[in-house]
Design goal:
The protein is mainly α. It folds into three domains: 220 residues, Clc chloride channel; 206 residues, Orthogonal Bundle (Clc chloride channel), CATH 1.10.3080.10; 135 residues, CBS-domain, CATH 3.10.580. Strands 1-6-5 form a three-stranded antiparallel beta sheet. Strands 2-3-4 form a three-stranded mixed beta sheet. The longest helix is centred in the N-terminal third of the chain and has 34 residues.
Length: 590
Amino acid sequence: MSVEVSNRLRGVAARLRAVARSNELSLVVVAVVVGVLAGFSVAAMTELVDLAHVAIYGIPFDVRLSAAARVAPLAAFTALPLGGLAVGLIDRWRRARKLPRAVDPIEANALRGGRMAMGESLIVCAQTVISNGSGASVGLESGYAQIGAAIASRVGLALRLRRQDLRILVGCGAGGAIAAAFGAPLTGAFYASELIIGAYSLANAGPIFAAALAATLTTKALLGAPYVIVAPPVAPLALGHHLVLVALGLISAALGVGAMRAAALLERGFAATRAPPWARPVLGGLLLAAMTLYTPQMLGAGHGAVGLDFSAELSAATLATLLALKLSASLVSLASGFRGGLFFASLFAGALLGKLYALGVDAVLPGLGLDPTACIMAGMATLSVAVVGGPLTMTFLVLESTGDLGVAGGVLAASIATSLAVRATFGYSFTTWRLHLRGESIRGGEDVGWLRDLTVARLMVRAPPTIPAETPLRDFRAAYPLGSAHVVVAVDEAGHYRGLVLVPEAHAVPLEENEDGGPVSAVARLAETTLHPDVDVRSALAIFDAAEADTLAVTERDTGHVVGLLGETFAARRYAQETDRAAKGVLGGG
């Protein structure tokens, strides 16, 4: 390539970046491109998994794995452990190469301003395809969202988008992938807003809905929606029906919280076997294979099983058994090391819970006349809200599946009850709970990365004036006359912090003509209270309040050496500025 052509290409790229950064409509165009790429990715991953199911389990191509009448035990006991081995060895290879852990879309938007690495995301997608393709009880939706968001992030970084625009584009990629998976653009759009971006805004609506629609149309044109849900008409709901569905939502909240806590216990259980991490998915695969001896419905995400069980006449005992097995299979899959999501698995388990709940309601209140389909749809939505989050996301999934605003209203009431109960008693979705177990404290995609970046180290005044703590007060006055400084840091011989000396106070102490006033440390304040460079500004302001101080010294955590000073007024002003900037970014302000 000649220098002239290279320069022209760079010029074109620079103009594209300038347009993308300066024109709101251009972000919609970029979002459409991201949506199309996400749709292609969803279609490709789905096709690979379907081919694997046909090849491994010998099922017809038009039959979902979990809907198969039976599968050969030899296939299950071979494919699942081998699939687990492949997933485990990929993780071992990644650790040996010291490759960083993949960042999921929620974590990327909350902490990294939307920055994601394509290489790590491709590894996650490969592991997800292997896991679901071998029959593990996980869905592809986390892989869909991962690759959609990663594509969006790379496109946004190439265009050098601003932080908030990049976060919106990551939401477009993840939401577009979910929309494509379910053939439900409204569901994907609200998934992006609720779970990935963490805020609703009219300014964000254009690119998000454009990406969701583009991804849906792309995947439908290629192979149809992989996870589309079709429900029969639902009888109208009365006020009493809404109350009964709200009660179902509370049951789903309890079940979801229990499942999330059980996942952590199972992870500790696999670790207690002392098997190396790469071998734990093999153990999980053997357990899953044993569950398939009861029914193949434990295999895969469960899409085929939902269609199979929706209208089937099943006893309460059978429903309870299937529900327990499906939750166990999904949690064992993830706890042992398989990759995948719980989005559709929770929908399937919720459908079983709703159907079981409908039997109970009919037995206790036979004259209520509640349509069992309403219970099934509410069970799907509420258990998914408990595990995944997003009450509006799940409500719109029901709406797009049934086309019934009446049942969507009942599901929305139940979903809100579920969300409130989970937040009050637990506070996390499954994704954020797993992040919490790794030491993170985020509870959604809201942008808190700017807060973590705004640390004391960025705000403090470096190299503050210091004086040995044993210096006589008279000598201190000579070294720091009134007006020369406001605060001086007292340190010992090793440079360790010993308190703050306010210059006006030091000069206000009465001294006789022949007195030296004793060591300056006697008038020093806050000898036990300091800030550290890595503390964020919000935590620093809390320390200021507790100490009732205007200025604090900044010391190194390990050595106690003084590295700076920070004033409360300046810290509060910078915090207010950054908070205002973040709010404008979310709401689309200038």
